[in-house]
Design goal:
By secondary structure, the chain is of the alpha/beta class. It is built from ten helices and 13 strands. The protein has three domains: 78 residues, Winged helix-like DNA-binding domain superfamily/Winged helix DNA-binding domain (Arc Repressor Mutant, subunit A, Orthogonal Bundle), CATH 1.10.10; 94 residues, D-Maltodextrin-Binding Protein, domain 2 (3-Layer(aba) Sandwich); 102 residues, D-Maltodextrin-Binding Protein, domain 2, CATH 3.40.190. The chain is globular and about 65 Å long.
């Protein structure tokens, strides 16, 4: 059994199929298929049922998921204990990031970190479900989660780093009052592009309710990166963190600050007991304003 086979196996599990796994790994589909077949031969069991073009874990495959994740966690942990000749961390650091935090603060932070620690490779993935952040750390998918707060994670460390103000974003040409900030009570009766349940959506709906406005969805999108294209296409308005709203304005959207402001804290989630030197260095930098 080889390490890359274990990595490909988990990619198929996490991405629900060979094609999506190959795309995520930036490999050809036959390469992943052959590796999975080789792993099954080495283990002497079938890990997947092949049903048409789909793949479903067998009982043996389900039993192997936990040990496979442990194997990769041990490898990443071993790499993370290394330092270079100057005593600086090296290896790999895995981080999951809420989409609303990718523009700020994470992009700037990653740039600073890479300048200071060039021998650390960062792997960033989108945190699609804020409630899943704690499980991602417990199961070894990543060391650090950047997320909106609050989050339920009594057995992990939650550290607030800052906050974002949320702004209204409207399609180009929308008849919007000139006031900026715009009182929520004067919000036009425009349907909104929203995502499924999230901390941000809860805060926004609470603010709208206090202004006697209700959320009338025009579209519910699974991925946050889809929200702005839908708004620019005229599907409806939305509410975005200020850094993303400013980007929307640069692309032609009509943007207004909100009165009263909608603010939401953000921070990091991690397990101090398993942080690598690279993870500790990243958190130290995250706590230090530039």
């Amino acid at each position: 059994m080889e390490l890359h086979q274990v990595e490909y196996f988990l990619a198929v599990v996490d991405h629900n199929g060979i094609n999506a796994a190959a795309s995520a790994l930036q490999l050809a589909q036959p390469t992943v298929s052959q590796a999975i077949r080789g792993l099954e031969r080495d283990l002497g069991v079938e890990l997947f049922h092949r049903i048409g073009r789909g793949m479903v874990l067998t009982s043996a495959g389900q039993a192997f998921v936990g040990p496979a994740r442990q194997i990769l966690r041990d490898v990443v942990a071993a790499e993370g204990t290394l330092v270079d000749a100057a005593g600086l961390p090296r290896g790999r650091l895995d981080i999951h990031v809420a989409a609303s935090l990718a523009v700020h603060p994470v992009a700037q932070l990653v740039g600073r970190f890479r300048q200071r620690y060039p021998n650390v490779s960062l792997r960033l993935a989108e945190l699609r479900d804020e409630e899943a952040g704690a499980a991602l750390i417990r199961e070894g998918h990543c060391e650090i989660v950047f997320t909106n707060l609050p989050v339920p994670a009594s057995d992990l460390q939650v550290e607030e780093l800052g906050g974002h103000e949320f702004w209204l974003v409207f399609p180009p040409g929308t008849d919007v009052p000139a006031k900026d900030p715009l009182p929520l009570a004067e919000l036009p009766d425009l349907p909104l592009v929203i995502v499924p349940k999230s901390t941000g959506r809860t805060a926004i709906e609470k603010a709208l309710s206090a202004a006697r406005k209700r959320t009338r969805p025009s579209a519910v999108v699974q991925h946050r990166e889809s929200m702005l294209p839908f708004v620019l296409a005229g599907v409806g308005g939305t509410v975005l963190a200020r850094p993303m709203a400013e980007q929307a304005a640069a692309r032609g959207a009509i943007v207004r600050a909100v009165d009263p402001p909608i603010n939401l804290g953000y921070g990091v989630l991690y397990d101090p007991a398993v942080l690598s030197p690279a993870g500790r260095a990243f958190l130290r930098m995250a706590r230090t304003p530039r």
